[in-house]
Structure formats: C-alpha cells, structure tokens
Amino acid sequence: MSEVHRKDEIQGDIIHVYDGIEEADNDLPFWWLLTFYLAVVFAVVYYFGLHEYGLFPTIDEEYHAAVAAHLEQFPPVTPEEIAALEGNEEMATAGRAHYDAVCVVCHKTEGEGDIGPNLTDSYWIHGGSPENIYHTVADGVLDKGMPNWLAALGPQGVKEVTAFVLSIRNTNVEGKEAQGELWADPSAPVDDPPEQPEIQEAPEPALDEAAEEGAETVEAGATDEAEPEPGAAESEE
User: Fold this and answer.
1) Which of 69, 84, 124, 171 lies most in the core, judged by the most C-beta atoms within 10 Å?
2) What are the structural domains, with CATH classification, of the chain?
3) What is the DSSP letter of 143?
4) Closest to 117 measured CA to CA, from 107, 128, 132, 102
5) Cα–Cα distance between 158 and 149 in angstroms, integer?
C-alpha cells in the first residue's frame, strides 16, 4: 500500500492506493450526517417516552385499541340472532341480492354449486346449522379459496346471506354432487319408536281330572314303596 496525496475531480482527496484500488478521504455529506443525528435523537426520545414516561402507547395498548375499534365496527352476533335468521323471508330476500353479486361465481344461480359446493342438499363441509353457515360466510375458508366476507358485506350483509342460504338448504336442486357430511338438525323432533306388542306368557297346560287322579295314585304308590312295613323290618332282625 502506498500513500498518495492527490486531488481527484470526482473522488476528492486520494490518500491510499492498494493493488490499483484508490481510497479517498472525504467528509460525509451533510444530508447523511443530518439523518444520522436525527435518528439518534428520535431513538432517545422514543425510548424514554415509551418505556419511562408512557408518552406513547405500547404494543399491547395498540392491539387492544384495534380490537375495540374492530368490535365497534363489527359487533359480535349472538347465537340467538343467528338462529332467528332461519325462516326470516325479509332477510332472505335481501340476502339474495348479495348472493347474486358475490356468490354466484362459485355456487351458481340457485346454489347448485360449481367451484364451491352445492348449498341446496343436506351435506355440509363445515356444518349446516345457522351458526355454522354464518361463520363460514363471515370468516371465509381461505384454504379452499373462499374469502372473508365480513369486511366487504358487514355484519348485516353476512346475516342476510346466511338467511338466504338457509332458505335454499335442503331444496335439493340438481347440480354438483354432495360434499362433506350429512347434517341433521339436532333440534328436530325425533319420531318415537313403535310400541312393541306385549308378550304374554303361555299358560301351563291344564290336566283333566283323570290325569290328575292318575298322578296322585303314582305319587301315593311311590310313597308306599319308600316306607318299609314294620313286620318286614323285625323279620330281618
């Protein structure tokens, strides 16, 4: 390495040359120094403001604030509200408009299914209860390609779509073959099993008088044979 002191028009002062590589010694640009010093000042202010004096919200506080804002914008729906959607014709009619706008691409016009499953049969991949259907629409099924519709439709829109899907459930429109498991409403009444006829024991066969007398005679004879006569016992002695 050799030391060279010369001025280059582009690089400035050249102070070292090594293997053909020239090293210049120049002052850092003002904008670079200004950015560096401002970053140092910001780091000091942010640290003490966040951790020592609480001037800025922490990550946990920001998270809880975001959750509260989300719940305010999308209030949770109770199971009772979801259950009331079944049979609600007004909600189902409003849900038809949403369905035609965003759902027909995958589920076809009457819900017979195309890319998505058939919505009119009794088989459901994620459950066929009102609550199952609501959460499937609201949360989506990302691994199956179904997006989350809560942000786009809002809670009211999701409830309306749910009411419409419930209105076409079990209508069995011919279309895509069934997928998932057979779903039965657990609250539906179950038919009582047919009553079994009462089984009566067969009566013992009755003996006529002659048979009864014969049986008594046989029993008496057996008793006589079992008891030895007194005279016979003495003769043996």
Assistant:
1) 124
2) 2-52 (no CATH), 79-182 (1.10.760.10)
3) G
4) 107
5) 7
- pLDDT tens digit string along 171-223? 999 999 999 999 887 776 665 555 656 666 666 665 555 556 665 665 555 55
Instruction: Report which secondary-structure segment, H or E, holds 231.
Output: helix 230-236
Asked if 88 contacts 161 with a C-beta cutoff of 8 angstroms, the reply is: no
Q: How many residues does the chain have?
A: 237
Q: Where are the beta strands (DSSP E) in the chain?
A: 2-8, 12-18, 21-24, 123-124, 181-182
- pTM for the whole structure: 0.56
Kindly report each contact of residues 66-72 with a partner whose C-beta sits within 8 Å and lies 24 or more positions away, as own/partner: none
pLDDT at 138: 93
pLDDT (mean) for 231-236: 49
Which helix (H) or strand (E) segment is 40 a member of?
A: helix 30-47
With beta carbons less than 8 A apart as the criterion, state whether 156 and 78 touch: no
Distances (CA, A) of 18 to 2, 15, 22, 24, 45: 7, 10, 7, 12, 44
pLDDT in tens, 53-95: 888 888 899 999 999 998 888 788 888 999 999 999 999 999 9
- Name the pLDDT band for 168 (thresholds 50, 70, 90): very high
Burial pattern 2-30, b for ≥16 Cβ within 10 A else e, equals: eeeeeeeeeeeebeeeeeeeeeeeeeeee
